Inverse folding.
């Protein structure tokens, strides 16, 4: 009996070390392809993140007076209570208009090589100017925004402090820079996958490790790699097989609109997969609500592989380990408007019928 | 020279003590009419405020999945970044519809004798059920809301913890109770007026004290008294002189709709004046953006007095001292939807044209 037990123990030890070797190998391979989210706010090129600037940015991010109606803010579509997006197919904007593309999460967006589904903004400060002005989103103008901010003494003071030495600190560029600085703080470190990358091989269970292995072996990580598992480069949606027109409608040719290059038709930025379990529905049309289904579609359209049920489940389990520690954000206390503050656009009973809103430029996400 | 100085000093001392006597008298009179905001969360009748319940209520308050569209939450119209309301004439709700009355602040609303402009809800938990279901606001149904909450394990668990011992804790009544418990925490103590009431007569300057004196002597405090300087009783708008139909449109007869009593025509709840400097525009129509103008209108319509410029300015200065310490609220982290979670109402391109939204019941604030 004693002998039998020690044989079992020896076998267990062997198995244990075999597993350990495999796990460590997996971890090493993973570290060649992915990077952990840092636990500190990253530096932003050309826009140092100071506390004053990020605090101002938090106010602007939540201030609906940056919209024509006075009810929409950055947080309306990039809701920090819900994984940094709105969990809708496409967003609802000014005049209850439906936006053309699914709202991407703002979380960890500072790590993306470029912003928007077609990557047309090279950084977050360029991105921030888009939705404020888009007729289907906040429908404001730089003049309107600056009119609001300059009419409020506390805002004037905060711009001065956040951008010291500038004669006129309240500019649309600085609005965008402050928002970028705040957004750079919205990172989600310490996901179980990060813990795994950093050395704790027990942070993932067997199925999740199998999912990670499959994610690398089947080719997902060819596009979804780096710190954000995506967000770094552009690829055609439907490399192997184009999905149905509900998921990839012919009217939206993606990056083609930016580069006007035929090879960029239906090309989109590889979606960053951090916190993907929190940001359904999926794809630029937001037509797929189920993460398993999204994984299966990616298998056929991008890799030409019919993934088995078990494979889909394992990859999905792995994707769930990408949910990191969410930023705890205190609601700002916005200073009151003054007699000089431009008032929100008078609400036409049905502004869409009158075409008031749609006359403005309508850039897409 | 020495003698001259000491005479001046003696006179100053005399004047000082005379002022002190007057100030103390003013403070005593004020304490007979008003009460300070307590610094602790008040007890709520029939709904003890526990941390678990208030935390759950904070989640529900911010969760747009309690609306048909998936974009509107309690915080949309009662924005905690902006004095607890939306700073619009009347709110924008489902399908970009315009609400019929100005959104009242949620701050200190726990101290009101009843809720809504016509006082038709006796408490905050009754009030909370209104906007969730109103077709012009969140346009949801209790079934829809419970469908969402029951589909999400974390919500189920949190309801169990917040309402221990209840077999089925996820009920619409408990949704309302949790929201009420959170809202009871949204109090704003330590305004300068509270400091004055509590003994620091230097918390108000001379003009503000004059404003307080006028507020009591001209009769404002006849309706605006108690802890919230209002919110306790109902009065006709236009006791002496009815304001113009832009400010008091004939279509909204106020409390008459609740009591069906002729004497309640154009009767509204005396507005609570706490934080009034943060909650422009004013009156149930929200047609007046300027606090001075609102004070002057009240003088003529309610008191039959043409207040002088100086009197209006002094009363307004006093009203500014009613802004208290705003609650610091952390954005909740809402649990993700599941495959079972009902999806937001499919967005009809123009839902108002189709009449989808307006078919629902449309109660007013």
């Amino acid at each position: 009996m004693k002998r039998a037990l020690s044989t079992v123990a020896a076998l267990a030890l062997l198995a244990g070390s075999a597993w350990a070797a495999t796990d460590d190998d997996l971890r090493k391979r993973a570290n060649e392809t992915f990077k952990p989210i840092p636990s500190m706010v990253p530096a932003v090129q050309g826009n140092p993140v100071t506390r004053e600037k990020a605090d101002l940015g938090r106010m602007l991010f939540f201030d609906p007076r940056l919209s024509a109606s006075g009810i929409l803010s950055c947080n309306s579509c990039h809701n920090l209570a819900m994984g940094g997006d709105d969990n809708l197919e496409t967003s609802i904007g000014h005049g209850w208009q439906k936006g053309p593309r699914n709202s991407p999460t703002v979380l960890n967006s500072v790590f993306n090589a470029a912003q928007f589904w077609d990557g047309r903004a090279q950084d977050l400060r360029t991105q921030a100017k888009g939705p404020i002005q888009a007729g289907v989103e906040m429908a404001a103008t730089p003049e309107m925004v600056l009119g609001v901010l300059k009419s409020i003494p506390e805002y004037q003071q905060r711009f001065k402090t956040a951008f010291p030495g500038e004669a006129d600190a309240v500019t649309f560029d600085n609005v965008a820079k402050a928002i970028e600085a705040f957004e750079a703080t919205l990172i989600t470190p310490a996901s179980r996958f990060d813990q795994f990358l950093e050395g704790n091989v027990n942070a993932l269970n067997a199925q999740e490790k199998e999912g990670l292995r499959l994610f690398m072996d089947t080719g997902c990580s060819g596009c979804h790699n780096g710190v954000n598992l995506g967000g770094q480069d552009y690829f055609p949606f439907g490399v192997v097989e184009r999905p149905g027109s509900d998921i990839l409608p012919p009217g939206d040719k993606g990056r083609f609109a930016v580069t006007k290059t035929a090879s960029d038709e239906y090309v989109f930025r590889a979606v960053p997969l951090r916190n993907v379990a929190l940001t359904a529905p999926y794809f630029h049309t937001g037509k797929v609500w189920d993460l398993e289904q999204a994984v299966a579609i990616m298998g056929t359209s991008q890799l030409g592989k019919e993934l088995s049920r078990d494979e889909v489940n394992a990859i999905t389990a792995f994707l769930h380990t990408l949910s990191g520690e969410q930023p705890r954000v205190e609601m700002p206390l916005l200073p009151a408007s003054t007699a000089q503050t431009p008032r929100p656009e008078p609400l036409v009973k049905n502004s869409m019928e009158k075409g008031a809103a749609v006359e403005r430029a309508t850039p897409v996400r």
Remarks:
- The CA atoms of residues 44 and 184 of chain B lie 7 Å apart.
- Chain B touches chain A through 46 residues (CB under 8 Å).
- DSSP finds 13 helices and four strands in chain B.
- Residues 2-33 of chain B form the longest helix (32 residues).
